Amino acid sequence: MPFAPSLDTLGLFTGTAGDMACLLFTGTAGDMACLWERSWGSPKPVAELPPMGQVGALPATGLPVVSLKMPDGWGELLAAARLINDYEGARTHRELLARHGEAIGARLAELIRHGLALTEDEYAAARKHVEAMRGAMARVFDAYPLLLSAAATGPAPEGLESTGDPSANAPWTALGVPAISVPIFRQAAPLGLQITAAWGRDDELVAAAALVERVWFKS
After folding, report:
1. What pairs with residue 196 in β-bridges?
2. Which tens digits make up the pLDDT trace of 52-61?
């Protein structure tokens, strides 16, 4: 079912990054390492976004990790993504609200009402900001093939009412870059490491995620 055409993205869920690699391309872990070498040659620094802590095990992959200050405008990207989501989603599903009212769900109904109240100028400004950030992030990805960040803002919520706060993921969706979340375990607590790469680097991203996963489960 479509929602926001500018943001709707095909995604896959697997138990491991290695399984994800099997869905995208055929190869062993050794082949994935070769894919990394062919794509980026000698290890380039990997950038770590605040508020992540030190990614202690990742250097065991041979990839240096540096802390990155994001380009100007990054802080406004989430708001732009949410505005686009609400504006487009409201116009995709306004007939559902008109036909069924609150029966579509209180949260969706409120989103549609809010989105319909947004102006075309607000929407155009949000789209313009996303385009500007794509240019800025293209320069970042030229220097850092992978960016590391938290996959979520906190623990998964209890119950089935919500899948949690998507604010850690929404900016990457707005940019349209490939992203993957790798589970890691610290002090018996599962956490998610989100890894993103430049446009068109899906295979290399999954290969890197599989290598990172192997390092973590060995440590």
Report:
1. 147, 179
2. 444 554 655 6
